[in-house]
Amino acid sequence: FELQRMEKDNSATQIELILVNVSSDNDDEPSCVAGLLDRLLSRVSCYESSDWCQHGRNDDSPFRCINDGIRNDVERFVRIHDKLLALAAILLKSRAFFQATDAAREANPSSILVRLPRTIHNKPYIPRKNKCKDHDDDEDDATLSISHHFPFVGAAQRKLREENSRLKIGLDIVVREPLNTRLYDTWDNYLQVFQESFHNKEWKIIRFETDPESRLHEFLLRWATKEAYTKALGVGLGFDFANFLVQFELPESCHGQLREYLWANQSESDRSPIRLRGKVAVDGLTPQDELWDFYFGSLSPDMWSWFCVAVGPVGIASCSNVQVRWTTLERLIAES
């Protein structure tokens, strides 16, 4: 068995993963979020993507400024943590739009922030050039995926938008949080709620460990795998997680456990994602099992937190690279 880490391959599909830790340079005071919003909205003009396309403004569409709408998208949340996550997600999605479309900003002298449309499953997507007005097949073109779990927000995006590429991308972030003792007495009671969301083979692997903490970690990694896969399909939680099984080829010493394998192979000196190829068997959806690549990476040495990027379906010879870059809310605002 050979560990697969990311080595730059110019012939491979390039995927960029931008990550933000919203707690790294922000406090929990309401004035913090208000100050960030004021600074952003005082220097940018916000528009719907339908008003800002490949060549700037659509001639047949009103150029509606939605700065108040962007503010509401953030301030509608009660908790400060959720406001920070929402702001970071808005900035990452706008950045992804301009990255994918190369949309010209010269048509407006001020900086531009774009709000992306959403599919019927509430997944944000980037309209194709010259197709910014209608919800069409763009919704199935999964070139972008967003995920957040405080304090992290991430955006995974194909760097080049190949028109005929079948590869879809899904991202999920999981963070180990304290047990909510008002609802659950033990971690086992918590995990039991999710048993029906897993295939029997997956649940057997989760329950293999005798240590509750180890079971929790395996559960979170398996959940991230399922979330990333269904988000790549564009359905997210709208798809029954128990209807599909993801099988990885792991060393026998790992007893099928992702937690054991990833823990043994993560490196302080090499923080590049670890790639595992998984076989996905979907009941009633695919005529045959599909191969997908799953990329895993630890988010922080100070808290148990991981990301999973699902890329697929892939052929035996298909190859992709996930390049990880960290940024901050301050930098995203400055670059908008």
Write structural notes for this entry.
One of its GO terms (cellular component) is cytosol. It comes from Amphora coffeiformis. GO terms for molecular function: holo-[acyl-carrier-protein] synthase activity; magnesium ion binding. Keywords: Transferase. It is a single chain. With 336 residues, this protein is α+β, with helices and mostly antiparallel strands. The protein has 8 helices and 12 strands. The strands form 3 sheets. Strands 1, 7, 8, 9, 10 and 11 form a 6-stranded antiparallel β-sheet that branches. A 4-stranded mixed β-sheet has the order 5-6-2-12. Strands 3-4 form a two-stranded parallel ribbon. The longest helix is centred in the N-terminal third of the chain and has 22 residues, at 80-101. The mean pLDDT is 83.
Layout of secondary structure:
Elements: E1 4-5, E2 13-21, H1 30-41, E3 44-48, H2 67-75, H3 80-101, E4 111-115, E5 144-149, E6 152-158, E7 168-175, H4 187-192, H5 200-206, H6 212-233, E8 244-248, H7 258-265, E9 274-282, E10 290-298, E11 305-314, E12 320-327, H8 329-335
Parallel strand pairs: 2-12, 3-4
Antiparallel strand pairs: 1-9, 2-6, 5-6, 7-11, 8-9, 9-10, 10-11
Key terms for this structure?
holo-[acyl-carrier-protein] synthase, 336 residues, six-stranded antiparallel sheet, single chain, alpha+beta, four-stranded mixed sheet, Ribosomal Protein L22, Chain A, 2 domains, holo-[acyl-carrier-protein] synthase activity, magnesium ion binding, transferase, 4-PPantetheinyl_Trfase_dom_sf, 25% strand
